[in-house]
Amino acid sequence: MSTLTKQTLSHLDWLEAEAIHILREVAGQCANPVLLFSGGKDSICLLRLAEKAFRPGRFPFPLMHIDTGHNYPEVTEFRDRRAAELGERLIVRSVEDSMARGTVVLKHPGESRNKHQSVTLLEAIEEFSFDACIGGARRDEEKARAKERIMSFRDEFGQWDPKNQRPELWNLYNARSHKGENIRAFPISNWTELDVWQYIQREQLELPSIYFAHVRPVVRKNGLLQPVTPLTPAKAEDKVEDVLVRFRTVGDITCTAPVESDADTVDKILLETATTTITERGATRMDDQTSEASMEQRKKEGYF
């Protein structure tokens, strides 16, 4: 009589298997999906998951980034290089293009372009007739994100109704949609920030240098560290400090703040992440300092 040895799977194995299943469901059910890739840590994990789901073949979807034009150069340079290394098609659409068309109008030149990504995304979806956008959002990031399904339905206007979502019982996902409608799929929805860093460590994933501790000029404002850059210059009354910082999340320069940290390796970041009591976006996103309702409203208008 043979003895079967039960293999013990780690929590990362389970999360990885679920994410790969979701990616394959999107590929199987949707005619023209796209994977949103910004060069940030969550979308870097998505690329590795896509490799495991579909290699040695090509990805059954292109990559796309909605660029505000105000992104950190370390991240956009990494984005372009990583897509080239994988040999996958990268589509970049810019908020600046929407501004030139007149579909995005800023209230003033210094307004953050972050929320206006919704317009550019919806225009790109229409341009390429994408019926699904795969994103790296996680439920632990923000309360409004926690309300979304893994397959989040958007109507023909790109709008999200949190009270009108499809049930997802027994890991059965419905990614089908009518022409003009869209699905936002979130394969790592059930992951936490700590899970992401543990996966980065296990898979030895390369990251933009901005995620690791480095000295950067900042100004302390409203409990956050505002980077001093040509886009966000210090005012006459500001006290500029050179501080050892790292970024927990990356996005538009005008609304993404670093945190004080000496964590210059993944091991150190893991320890720091495991012991922090401040949420990822709460510590770093200047545009999230308002309320849950504001994020929910932006998502209803088509935000990621």
UniProtKB/TrEMBL annotation:
Entry keyword annotation includes Chaperone: no
Region annotated Disordered, chain positions: 281-304
InterPro entries hit by this protein: PAPS_reduct_dom, Rossmann-like_a/b/a_fold, SO4_adenylTrfase_ssu, Sulfate_adenylyltrnsfr_sub2
Source organism superkingdom: Bacteria
One example of a Gene Ontology biological process annotation: sulfate assimilation
Example of a GO MF term: sulfate adenylyltransferase (ATP) activity
Gene3D superfamilies listed in its UniProt record: HUPs
Composition skew (Basic and acidic residues), residue ranges: 295-304
EC numbers on record: 2.7.7.4
Domain Phosphoadenosine phosphosulphate reductase: 32-258
Keywords of the record: ATP-binding, Nucleotide-binding, Nucleotidyltransferase, Transferase
Similarity comment text for this entry: Belongs to the PAPS reductase family. CysD subfamily.
Name of the protein described by the UniProt record: Sulfate adenylyltransferase subunit 2
Species in which this protein is naturally found: Pseudothauera rhizosphaerae
